[in-house]
Amino acid sequence: MSSGIYSGFSDIAKQAMMQPQESMLEVKSKKNKLYIGIPKEVSFQENRIPLTPLSVALLVNNGHDVILESNAGQAANFSDKDYSEQGARIVYDTKSVYHDADIIIKIAPPVMPEIELMKPGQILISALQLATLKAECLHALMAKKITALSFEHLRDEGNTLSVVRAMSEIVGATSILIAAEYLSNVFDGKGLMLGGITGVPPTEIVILGAGTVGEYAARTAISLGAEVKVFDPSIYKLRRLQNNIGSRVFTSVVQPIVLEKAITTCDVAIGAMRAEDGRSPCIISEATVSRMKRDSVIIDVSIDQGGCFETSEVTNHTHPVFRKHDVIHYCVPNIASRVARTATYALTNIFTPILLDIGDQGGIKNVIWQKSGIRNAVYIYHGHLTNKHIGERFSIPCKDLDLLIVSHR
Where is the Alanine dehydrogenase/pyridine nucleotide transhydrogenase NAD(H)-binding domain (predicted)? Predict the structure, then answer.
């Protein structure tokens, strides 16, 4: 009798084991748990956010905590609910983010009120923006023994500046779409469709600069059917652009007579020439702009470095254009924030693996030591300045990062 009962129980147990079971998502235990803080941006019209809700979910699933200031993602159309549902902890004051986090990740460089909220020894991942860097901010970060990484200097496995490349691709493509808007009647433009259709001459676009911005502007313009001319002082860059695009496009070195003719007959001129350090080259004079066609459009992408056109003046997303010599000028320095959600997706693809590596490798020190692309982005390590260009500019002693890492191991 009892053996029959046991046999019955055994059969029931077997059947239960064969039934579909509810599985719990495993939260992995990592070598180093990270407390990642995302404050709301205070920089004017900065709409991007470094991490998407799904990236937060990945970090939380890997055992990390993400502290998000309320409405930090609102400008990129990510709500607090989007983040909280993926495991982020929402806080309602900036101080809590800086107090509770070990790593602060943000877009714009920190300003003094934000630095004052930081804890000694924190890790900061943000933009550096050398053109606007202030000595007082630098000294304040060093005094708190912060380890600071500039995401503009992050390099990937192919030695490409990953964030700069991603943002340049976005800005290049978006600049053509902006030009299309201001050529149309909607914004009191000439009433042209950017591109071309059968029997109608295509719009003419001149692009100054054959870097990533210029390449993606050319790609977008060509795909819309426009006639494109690209100018750059470097034959190498022009050849690379030609090869990357995969189709023949008018290219020229900067010959003043040829360039002036192209500018004065085009419908759209895009300034995308960058300087490695300092001001971008201003190669189009006001006299040349004054001879451009009425209601033609200038998009000066390089305005954050001074601009490629003598007539350029900084504008913003609220008032993006002005007219000078009957030419529409669009000179907004932060074009990527115009498409903040797309830009956020591009950024999160770069930042999330780095944060996971910091957790997996047991801290930022090991990641810096093992990955030269991340080491390249460090400009302050435990309060010591490690970027010689910044050191020379502000007359601050600079220390060798490799030696500092070894001494802290």
Answer: 183-331
pLDDT digit string (tens) for 230-270? 999 999 999 999 999 987 899 999 999 999 999 999 999 99
19's tokens: 């039934």
- Report the DSSP beta bridge partners of residue 101: none
Question: Is the model's pLDDT at 14 over the cut of 80?
Answer: no
Q: 123-151 pLDDT, tens per residue?
A: 999 998 877 888 999 999 999 999 999 99
Whole-structure pTM value:
0.86
Joined together, the tokens standing for residue 13 give 């147990």
CA-closest candidate to residue 277, choices 170, 173, 387, 397 = 387
Residue ranges per structural domain of the chain: 35-153+339-408, 167-333
Any bridge partners for residue 329, and if so which?
Answer: 298, 322
May I ask the CATH class of domain 35-153+339-408?
Answer: alpha beta
